[in-house]
Amino acid sequence: MQTLKFAVLPGDYIGPEVMTEALRVLEHVARQEGFSLDYTVADVGGAGIDNHGKALPESTVAVCRGADAILFGSVGGPKWEKLPPNEQPERAALLPLRKAFNLFANIRPGLLYKDLVDASPLKPSRIPEGIDIVCIRELTGGIYFGQPKATETLPNGERQARDTMIYKTSEIERIAEVAARTALGRGRKVCSVDKANVLETSVLWRRTVSEYFARKHPGIALTHLYVDNAAMQLARDPNQFDVLFTENMFGDILSDEMAVICGSLGMLSSASLGAGKNSLGLPFGLYEPAGGTAPDIAGRNLANPCAQILSAALMLRYSFGLEQVAARIEAAVRKTVTVDGVRTGDIAFGRGSVGTDAMATAIIGNL
Ligand code: IPM
Ligand code: MG
User: Fold this and answer.
1) What confidence tens digit (pLDDT) does each residue in 124-158 have?
2) Distances from the Cα of 342 to the Cα of 25, 269, 335, 345, 356, angstroms
3) Which of the chain's ends, N or C, has fewer CB atoms near its CB within 10 Å?
4) Residue 351 within a domain
5) Distance from Cα 317 to the centre of ligand 2, integer Å
6) Phi, psi of 364 (to 5 degrees)
7) CA 97 – CA 286 distance, rounded (Å)
């Protein structure tokens, strides 16, 4: 019997609520499919700060090191808002986790079911079939981590700060490979986004990506856009993209734009894959919903658990090689929300809505 060994980091506010439901779904498919779950729960984010004095306690990192994947909830909220920026739960938990586990490949599906087009701020006429794209973001390089990164005082007493945007070809090529593989499983189109009219790193990015695809993936249709234009195109006609592929900071910004045009954050999952392999020889990864901790609805059984459940499905796919089980969970979520019309408040649009637990129960019913 296969045992899935993973770390569970529920985090804050609605994090633990939706995590409970995702674990319930995993327990259910494990029983059906004959595998077992071996997970350890650890504090992260605000819970880490409150119980251990920091957002990413060493004990939590140790739990993650002993696992094949991390199922992550959401962190942060008003309680910790007054901390200095580098101690804030989100930044102080996610950035060191990305660095510690070399999580260089961020995969964010931008999926909006046809039945939910009303959730998007775009006119339904622009997205008659919903939205189905995916953003591949480089996650451990660029201006986020480049050195030097410093604030100094100039001789005249003025303050000056700098960040460094830096990429080398090997970093660009390894994320290009993830974009290519993603495209091969979908529409075989990749749009690489850069700012090659201004930035040196982008000139290298564009040349490296072009050469890499020509050499390794000539069958994929590769195009390039400047990031400002990409932001416009995404709002104008998102489905012109299949795989949107870009560096760290551009990806941070464009993936939030993609999330908002996809309507409810409660439906969006993500995967951050590591360079290293887990004990199964598959990518170690961190899987988290896009939505955040939603403090306003926490503790009231109102949160939409779908994004957390879909993130668990991504974990099965990428870190445990259970493609069919992952696809079954995704199909069950889709059927529950569309055919059965079961909705939490964020996607109800005036019709009746159910609670967090009832949504998960309905999904389990469809499994
Ligand atoms: C994200 C977040 C993080 C980022 C923050 C919390 C550091 O916005 O995952 O997109 O900028 O990468
Ligand atoms: Mg972001």
Assistant:
1) 999 999 999 999 999 999 999 999 999 999 999 99
2) 16, 19, 9, 10, 11
3) N
4) yes
5) 23
6) -60, -40
7) 9
* Confidence (pLDDT) at 20: 98
Report the separation in Å between the CA atom of 216 and the middle of ligand 2, taken as the mean of its atom positions. Answer: 30
pLDDT of res. 268: 96
Contact 74/15 with Cβ under 8 angstroms?
A: yes
Tell me the best of 143, 248, 252, 256 to mutate to test the pocket of ligand 1, counting ligand atoms within 8 Å of each CB and taking the most.
252
Q: What is the total count of domains within the chain?
A: 1
* pLDDT value at residue 225: 98
**Which ligand 1 atom is the nearest neighbour of the CA of 248?**
12
Whether 280 is covered by a domain: the verdict is yes
Task: Copy the structure tokens of residue 148.
Answer: 């030097």
Domain of residue 20, residue span: 1-103+272-367
C-beta of 96 in contact with ligand 1 (< 6 A) = no
Tokens 């609670």, residue located: 355
Bridge-based pairing state of the strands 243-246 and 221-226: unpaired
User: Catalytic residue positions?
Assistant: 144, 195, 228, 252, 256
Measured from the Cα of 256, ligand 1's closest atom is 10
Instruction: Flag whether 141 is in a domain.
Output: no
Domain harbouring 345, CATH code: 3.40.718.10
CA of 255 relative to ligand 2 center, distance in Å: 7
pLDDT tens-place string over residues 7-54? 999 999 999 999 999 999 999 999 999 999 999 999 999 999 999 999
In a domain, 30, yes or no: yes
Is 189 touching ligand 1 by the criterion CB < 6 Å? no
